[in-house]
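A quick aside before the break. I want you to see a complete sequence-to-structure record at least once, exactly as it would be stored in a machine-readable document. Don't worry about memorizing anything.
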Amino acid sequence: MFDRTDYPYTETFVREAIQNTLDARLDQTAAPAVIRFSFHQGDLGPRRSFLEGAMNYRHDADFPPIPEWNEGKIDWVTIEDFNTKGLDGKLNDRLGNFWNYWLNFGVSNKEKEGAKRGGRGIGRVTFLIASRVNAVLALTRRSIDDQTVSCGMCKLRMKRTADGSVRTTHAYLAEKESGDVFELHGSPNFSQTLANAFKLNGYVAAPRKSGLALVIPYPHKDLIPDGILASSIEHFAPAILNGSLVVEVDNVILNAASIDDIAKSVASKIHTSSIGADVDRYLDLLRTALADMPELKVDTKKGLASLRESQQVKKMQERCAKGEKVAVRIAFEIIKNAQSIPVRLCAVIARSPQDAAPIDRLFREGMSLPEVKASTPGELDLVLLADEENLAEFLNLCEGKAHLDLLESKEIRAKLEARGYQSPVSIKRFVKGIPSELRLLVTPDITEPDKDVFDEFFALPDENSEKKKSKGGKPDVTPPPPPPPPPPRTSPIVMETLNDGFRMKANPEFHDWPINISVTMAYADGTRSPAWSPFDFSPTDLLMTATGCSPAFVKNKLTAKNCGAGFSLEVAGFDARRELDTHIKAWKNAQND
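That is the input. The structure line, written in tokens, reads:
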């Protein structure tokens, strides 16, 4: 999900880091959120003590060695953000913000607090991925209580130690265990020593009141300054242009005033070729999208196509045909808790230069959703900005776990309906269809072709003449219609999703009993055939209730034989925070199997 060939380390790393910074911005109307990436290298020196325990555990777990560590060398990347809240949450609450960040993957309080860029609780894994030793150290100054605290994590392997205790898959930068959380290092000098050792310059002499600093030791080699600048421009250009975000990479400051020059210098590092090939065109489209523009009111049930004959759209078509940029604020309504809420989405569309690939991008509150685009963009550039709070919140709930696309799974639909949204899938489809529908809207109708254009080249039959007889002397006979297709097969089972499992029942419309059923189960990992591990779940972890069949478990496969017309099978006890993937197969000859 976060380690893919189409989205390399740099992009996922930058997307998660800047998303967290924007979510934590102190004042949404005053000073911009500032994020600083700095690259360092040198001798281990004072940094050894912060990593030595984790490196020893890595050695015991047979992880590949890091040559630089054995040579007494280290390189690292620091991420510091300012004008932000810091990592808040009670330090003794396992389900609070602070320990959710370090301990509870798949759990987040962002959605409860109204954040509109995150909320799935898994994006921070990108920081572990970015480190070749899968480690992250952190220092935070918290606006909520003015405390300065340090923590961290390192991905290891579960093991049983000599004293019989079990160590979990992650190590934490903490003093000791304390109930279901950890007691942090309490020395007043600890955080300052960490800041000095890893050159967290924004927090060394306390020039910043609050924020979060991360340390990524031994980063992957493809994390480079130009790549971070390029990804920031590709995925967060609207936030930079409107002044809500400043990105610093070593000694380079990327803001609204410098973005044009920096974009040209790192254009070759921009992943999307249509943007990298012409960054001036890309930034010009976005600046237009941030300016004032006329409004186009749309009924989402009828869609954009219903406005084709309006005078406003006719003028848009004429301007686009002349090569002008067309800017419009698409206004529509979403229904939440039985109330209609007006929302607007800014759009700028223009003809792509000759032989240039079209630009196609949707941004939600300044962050790109790169997979929301037209399947056939033709020769038209289009950028869309969803900045209004109500629309941004709705779209955030529609997004997948990597925030690349808008989805409509059962989980997402249930979450939207629980928040009070009415017909959420139709709204999601309307927004996702805009990249295609708006292009069609500004394209004039194609002139009806002249059916006589080839008369001089080919002999065409006269439609009014009598049908000629076939060579056999018999008149042509209209062939009989094809036989109707076979009726659709009736599924023998009805599937119901539970909060922590599933229930199967006999379908009353199916009559060819008895049958056998097998169900292969695993937690979804973004692939068609997710892998299963005994550490995920085992039959002993699950609660099964069965009637009218003979069930049996083998690893992650459940087989139910001799299922009759009244059978029912329920399996519960799965992790409710993870998505369960089930593959079901039914077959006959149950009595002889």
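Two observations worth writing down. Confidence is low (pLDDT under 50) at residues 113-117. The longest strand covers residues 339-351. We'll return to this after the break.
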